[in-house]
Amino acid sequence: MLKITVPFYLGIDGGGTKTTCAVGNESQLLATATAGPSNIVRVGEFLARESLQKSVRQACAAAGITPAQVSNTCVGGSGAARPELAAVVRRILTEILPTPIDVVGDMQIALDAAFDTGPGVIVIAGTGSIAYGRGRQGTTARAGGWGFAIGDEGSAHWIGRAAVSAVLRASDLAGEGSPDRIRSSDSVLAAALFKAWGVTSLIDLARAANSIPPPDFAALFPVVAVSKDDLATQVLADAGRELAWIAEVVIRRLFAKDETATVPVAMTGGVFRHAPLVGQLFYNDLRALDRRAEVSPQVVEPVEGALRMARRAASRSSTA
């Protein structure tokens, strides 16, 4: 009796905060699993290996298969398309996967998740940020994404850093009291930042922010996202405007000749997912900059694009 082998595929979204692995067959998503961060630049090879391999094993177990049954794998991650980093990611995964492994940038899997192979612009606002798009003729363009020290405006890291700066600036403008005392009565946001970093004064907050190596500013994003403080609201509004600006840059580069046609735009990342105000301001500001922008209200899951790309790679190899 002929035994039919069902192909299975893996898509992996390796981020600076978490790693998500999806298992699917030709037409269905079967299971997902989430582990820790796997951005090698941020967390190093040891932790990246732990997160990547854990997410794969857990997703395969949830789908009722073993890693040995996987036919093709696609991994997307921030900076992962750089040859030296792609080689490390591929080496880590070949320790447990016998499949062909494609390693691409996180913006590529997000774009695929949002628009398949069609035109559009995806704006990523997670630990970092970037806008990336594909035109109607297949041309691509990007804006932003220049790293934490000099860019990544609107990202979780940028929001955390901007919140600290806003609190310290507000203290200067108030001009009262001593910075070595807690002043939660002056700023609810300040008290929340103190608690998140385990400090007790503005002086300690400033020292932590200026420490070497730099602190994890992205860890402050959750408290900023839920704060009702006016300073937090202003920081989140500024984030939405910054993200709208980089989206408009990409639209202008790719769709300059389409003066009347709508331009599909999608959002992805934890900032959009957990701070609705950022998404609202992003939409309003982008529409003000370019009326052609048609923004989807749904926050895209990039791992779905990685899974789709794994299926597509398998299809290409079978017809080659």
Q: Which labels suit this protein?
A:
five-stranded mixed β-sheet, 10 strands, Nucleotidyltransferase, domain 5, 320 residues, alpha/beta
Offer a concise description of the structure.
The chain is of the alpha/beta class and 320 residues long. It is built from eleven helices and ten strands.
Explain what this protein looks like in three dimensions.
- The chain has 320 residues and is of the alpha/beta class.
- It has a domain at 8-106 and 303-319: 2-Layer Sandwich (Nucleotidyltransferase, domain 5), CATH 3.30.420.
- It is 47% helix and 20% strand.
- It has eleven helices and ten strands.
- The longest helix has 25 residues, at 230-254.
- The mean pLDDT is 87.
